[in-house]
UniProtKB/TrEMBL annotation:
Name of the protein this chain belongs to: Uncharacterized protein
């Protein structure tokens, strides 16, 4: 298993990336999936996310959340993220994961010359 958790871009600054926020451990975090985050989640869940994002067990929820947070902080460990999950937060986390996932499928807004500027 690769230990390279690096993902490209900056959440909140790259308009092609979705920006879904969630309070975890008292801190506002931002979830975003790019292709590297999807691959990291697949490594940890065994789920082909291009086919199925709805198969959510406790293990999968933790891995999906961790992968979505790598864009903002590539040094997070899956165990650290797991320590932020409590049962009462699961519905909000699941909703944020789904929102970030489907947001990553949107076509980016054109910018620069493509936007007629």
């Amino acid at each position: 298993m690769s230990e390279n958790n690096q993902v490209a871009g900056t959440v909140g600054k790259d308009p092609t990336l979705p920006d879904v926020s969630l309070i975890l451990n008292g801190v506002e975090r931002h979830l975003c999936y790019d292709f590297n985050a999807i691959a990291q989640a697949e490594i940890h869940t065994g789920i082909n996310l291009l086919k199925n994002i709805t198969d959510v067990s406790a293990t999968n929820l933790r891995a999906l959340l961790w992968a979505a947070l790598l864009k903002e902080n590539p040094k997070l460990t899956i165990e650290e993220v797991g320590s932020w999950i409590s049962l009462h937060k699961v519905p909000a986390i699941h909703n944020a994961i789904i929102t970030a996932w489907f947001g990553s499928l949107d076509e980016p807004e054109p910018k620069g010359e493509d936007a007629g500027e």
